[in-house]
Design goal:
The chain is α+β, with helices and mostly antiparallel strands. The protein has 18 helices and 11 strands. Strands 4, 5, 6, 7, 8, 9, 10 and 11 form an 8-stranded antiparallel sheet that branches. Helix 2 packs antiparallel against helix 6, helix 2 packs parallel to helix 15 and helix 5 packs across helix 16. Its main location: membrane.
Length: 519
Amino acid sequence: MANGSSISHVQLGRLAFIPIKWQGPLLRLLLAWIGLIALFFRDWAVMVGQWWNSSSYNHILLIPLILIWLVWLRWPELRKLVPFGWWPGLLFLAAAALIWMLGAVSGLNLLMQVGIVGMLIASVMVFLGPCVAAGLFFPLCYMALLVPFGEELVPTLQLVTARLAIALTHWSGVPAYVEGVFIDTPVGLFEVAEACSGVKFLIAMAALGLLVAHVCFQSWWRRVTFMTVAVILPIIANGVRAWGTIYVAQFKGVEFAAGFDHIFYGWIFFGLIMALLLGIGWHFFDRPGNDSFIHAEAITKSPLLRRFALWRMAGWRLFAISMIVVGSVHLWTDHIMQLEADLPVQISLPSVSGWHRVDYKPSVWWEPRAAGADHRLLGSYADNKGHQLDVFVALYAKQEDGREAGGYGEGALTPGTIWRWLEPGAPVQGAKADWLQANGQTRRLAMTWYRTGDVLTGSNSRLKLANIKNRLLGRDKTTMTLILSAEDRPNHSAGAAIMAFRDAIMPLEEWMDDIAQNP
């Protein structure tokens, strides 16, 4: 009898933890997640690699644990709800799968990652229903932070940090002037590099601020105020950090300041800023410690959710349809990804009226990167007015991951070289214009255009959209990158040289098509 009683208690304990009404839906959700991760394993591997290898995204490694904790906080109320299969959730699942497809056909990892995370989120609605999804609303939203994003803010944050640092440098009595992301002081030239932009602090602090705003506050205006501080504080703090390095260097030397920066700043600095943020918000926390976060009774009595609950479907039938929907999108994507334009065997830089070809001899070696291009050309032209510029052309048969014309590190500024991004230039005919600098002295202006089909643009986003449209319509169009670049020389400005050459090759679209031998 004692043994039987013990077994009975164990079974009751298990049932108390996961009610029977939850076991089937949770099993289907678990199998769906396993299937989705397996089907898109390559994309998950790339994303997890970013979490592990990029210091900007190391904090995401904690988010799965945070999500488990957020669900655990809600479990006493969640278990009172009745999960069920909900067929309208298929619309969200299909939408997430289509987002992944758009990312795949355009070679944009960010969209692919939004899609694969979105499919996991949508699966919760499909297999647990709208009431449970409403109870898990914040964890599901927070789950979106699994997607590594924010690097797009780096150039803007570099400029903001440089402006804050120069203002504080002047305030502290140190003579200096700023040019783009470079700050010239009596002891040397300082660069607000990508690693010093503060993007990693901003992304991590935003994730922390969002969590604290939800867990510790009930008042919406307090949440919004706290989030505003969580975003502004790391930006200001990073400007102070840059100024501190410059200021210490004036008295202790550049090497000492650099060593101090590496020792004190980084995660130690972030920890202090995080403590400051929590200290600011501490006295304004207004959520009771025993708050349950959700109320099952209120959810079940919601008129809207009760209407949604009418659209049910048997769980395993829904599981089969879900896998068919996602699998079909994956198969169709594999098919259209095979599209590849026919390229000429060889391309060459054409003759240009009023200009002649000269040997490529830059004062500081500069070579754009187009790692996945099928053809690349780099040459120089000069005219009889003293203008000289360099022309770079890259031609692609198709765009995909690793073969992206506008991918990270592709184009005029190659990572790991002596060249640094200085500031944006004035765009011409929609081009993306960038000033680059080497050795603190040599300046170079680079203007970038992309061409695919009938589209001519300097916008990477517009290029992606054009490539997506071509793929979805079954068009096998080439993609071409054109970079016109010139060094800024005494009495011969880079901008004047580029404008003179561009005027000589107008219309630009036809000139690019002639190189690519597009009909």
